[in-house]
Amino acid sequence: MFAQTLGSGPKKPKRVSDVNAMGAPVASSFDQTMQPVTGSIGFVPPNAGASSYMSNNTYEFQQYASYPEVSQQTHVPQRSTMPSNQQPGVDPGFPSQFVVFQQPIVQDMALQYGQKLADQGKVLMNTQFEKYVPVTKLKYYFAVDNKYVINKLRLIFFPFSQLDWSLKYDHDNPVQPRYDINAPDLYIPTMAYITYVVLAGLVLGFQNRFSPEQLGIQASSALAYSIFELVIYMLTLYIANISTTLKTLDLLALSGYKYASIVLILLCSIFLKKIGYYLSWLYTSASLAFFLLRTLKAKVLSEPAQTHEPPSYDPYRQQQQQFEHNIGRKRKLYFLFLVTGLQPLLAFWLSMHLIPNDVAPSIVN
């Protein structure tokens, strides 16, 4: 019976149209005994031999053999050749004792510290330079524009038509020259001084007396006379004990306007020779004196701000105060005439050596 069973083989299942009527499939003894084998394809029964397994799985091995061979490569990270004490971003050739200076945080700290030192040095230099050269005050005297320059030159050469000579103030401080035509400036005196030196060389060239050294002589002599003049004014104010609102730069600006008059004198001497020189000198002397007289009057004769003292009922004290006021006013007037009278003389002194000598031919022609 056992042999008949083996010979007849497994019974074929009946064909059923409805799959659900078959019921759940019965697991075969082969499926229950199948165990996965690591590293192989398919399942190997535990009691099956190698020949039986290979015969039953020939199709699977053939299908696996048809696949292209894939080389399995394992990625092995390469070991860095950088020394253990070497830090990223550091030049290997850099000396080891200075490696710390290549770190970004150290470089940022050094940059901030250097910037701080530079700012402190700039502030210190400006403070020390301000003690000897008042840059802030000089900016006030050069705060001009084209309109101011034109109107100021017109006022210097034609001051007789001006009616208002008062100075404008903003919170007890004088406004900039560009907003007040009566305010002194240093731009016009500086430009007039340079023009005077160049024009003097031109006049000497017309007279065949020019040499490169003459420009230096003209510039240095004019500058020396200006400094000497300024020293005289300051000593006069100190010795005479005259209290005014005039400043040193105010005196330098007002005394420098004579170079504008000298430039006009030299221009007239070029076209009209000696007659033009003397006529222009007379007119510019009168206009410059009148201009300085009216301008200095507002600064010299004005009383500086003083603390108000309680009224004194002592008649001797009142007489003494009145006497000091009269004496002080006379001293101020003398100083005023000194400044206005010295300008025409210096203008003549600085230009007399430039008077043309060939007068007769020009007059005859």
3D architecture notes:
The protein has 365 residues and is mainly α. 59% of the residues lie in helices and 2% in strands. It is built from 13 helices and four strands. Strands 1-2 form a two-stranded antiparallel sheet. Strands 3-4 form a two-stranded antiparallel sheet. Strand 1 and strand 2 form a beta hairpin. Helix 8 packs antiparallel against helix 11 and helix 9 crosses helix 10 (248-256). The chain is globular and about 85 Å long. 14% of the residues are buried.
The largest β sheet comes out as: 2 strands, antiparallel
Measured as a percent range, the helix fraction is: 55-70%
Cross-sheet strand order for the largest sheet:
1-2
Order of helices and strands: HHEEHHHHHEEHHHHHH
Radius of gyration, whole Å: 55 Å
How many H/I helical runs? 13
Number of strands: 4
Overall mean pLDDT:
74
Distance between the termini: 168 Å
Broad structural category: mainly alpha
What is the strand and helix layout of this fold?
Layout lengths: L1 H7 L20 H4 L2 E2 L6 E2 L5 H7 L1 H9 L37 H29 L2 H7 L4 H12 L11 E2 L2 E2 L12 H20 L5 H28 L8 H9 L1 H43 L14 H37 L8 H5 L1
Antiparallel strand pairs: 1-2, 3-4
Helix pairs in contact: 7-11, 8-9, 8-10, 8-11, 9-10, 9-12, 11-12
